Amino acid sequence: MVLIAASLVTKNGKVLVSRHFVEISKSRIEGLLASFPKLITSGKASQQQHTLVETDAVRYVYQPLEKLYVVLITTKASNILEDLESLRLFAKIVQEYCLTIDEACVLDNSFQLTFAFDEVVALGYRESVNLSQIRTFTEMDSHDEKIHKSIMETQMKEAKKKARDVALEFRRAQAEGRKKSYGRPISSVSSIAPIISGETTSYPVSRPVTQTKALRLLTKSKDVDAFIDQLKSEGETVISPTMKANSIAANVPVVPSAPVRIRIEEEMILTARRDGGLEAMEVNGSVKLDIFEERYGKIRIQFENLDTKGIKMQTSPRSVDKEMFRSRCLVVPKNPDTGFAHQADSEIIRWKFQAKDDSFIPLTINCWPTENGRGGCDVNIEYELQDTSLELENVSIIIPLAPGSGTPVITECEGEYTIGHSSLQWDIPVINSNEDTGLLGFSASGIPGDFFPIKVSFSAAQSFANLRVLDVVDMETNESVKFTAESLLSTKQYEIV
């Protein structure tokens, strides 16, 4: 009972894919398949669900599949019932890997089909496998690879964040260096010496400034290396942001600090109107579980949910006991005997919050452009942290400028700003309950509509849904398990139109 080959041929006899499972020459297979179209009729036989023809040496078991034939070549002594069962499985494989059953699609997926055929038959004999198992075997999914990728992504995120912090510290050091170099506070002048970087001009500002006609401290940009040398000559210790960021990335440990990691991730999409109303708001959140050691699969995770917004959360129907989370805010495996899978990025909770009530806006932006009668506008922009439970980091507010409007004149700024060719970027390192408001004032050419839409980006280490992890416990020993918990709220799109 030997299966010699499995093939896909067109109805005019062209061989597209053929895989033989026993020692047989290519010319012999080609000869057998060349005889196949002559042995079948084009009428009644081709309309049957399963058909077969025999010669003195072999048996052909075949099935029409749209424009093709799935053909199995077997010995005459093979079990016809097993052959038909194998034929059905081969037909399912073709339908699984080919969206359209035609010559082009089969040729595009010929390697995948060949690998899948090898999982069905070994040395001419049928393996006890089903389609789901074949899919798993051919995907070659690796939990260790997922965990490794997750660790590498975390390292990259941490290194980038620390590099941004170092760059911010460096800009602050530059501002302090100017104070020491020129002997007068920055806040006493209206124009700050620019640091030219690429196509944008950065103006570090430590405190609000008032509009005066004071002389600029510097009229030409200086090379960054020369400026660093000047700071060093004055006794300042300056470390290159790039060198420090590379050092941080190189020193990030490759081994996770705990066997269990829980990540709360949220993305916010918000569109607000310039008159203050909310047009649309959506927050998509999830909780992901990473188990780095298989022995910690049988755990229970205690959460605390302090949500007051009415966010409805859903648990994974495959892996989490829904009732335990609903009644006790406790995540336990749906099957306590097997526990959670030893893998990375296992999503256990998700939610989607939508609102049109402007009381849910975490950070409001109030922009007032007023025409000044000189062909331009006086613009005042104020932000206010409305959700004081959040601490927003790396806040960036980008205001568009009219094309060809020239350089805007900054009259007041809390934070730092960067002037580009077509936008003004206002950066605030941290906004929290202690520093919940800020103001930017400037004059620029244009009409009020030129300063919209305003785009905002920020991140926060607190959950918008007010969900946090309290404890992780081993269900077998009832002892606490070491874990790390991370929370990240970020903006995917945040606009004032």
TrEMBL record:
According to UniProt, the name of this protein is Coatomer subunit delta
Q: Which InterPro entries match?
A: AP2_Mu_C_sf (IPR036168), AP_mu_sigma_su (IPR022775), Coatomer_dsu (IPR027059), Longin-like_dom_sf (IPR011012), MHD (IPR028565)
Question: How does this protein sit in the membrane?
Answer: Peripheral membrane protein
Q: Which organism is it from?
A: Artemia franciscana
Q: Which PANTHER family match?
A: COATOMER SUBUNIT DELTA
Identify its protein family: Belongs to the adaptor complexes medium subunit family. Delta-COP subfamily.
Q: Which Pfam families match?
A: Adap_comp_sub, Clat_adaptor_s
Where does it live in the cell? Cytoplasm; Cytoplasmic vesicle, COPI-coated vesicle membrane; Golgi apparatus membrane
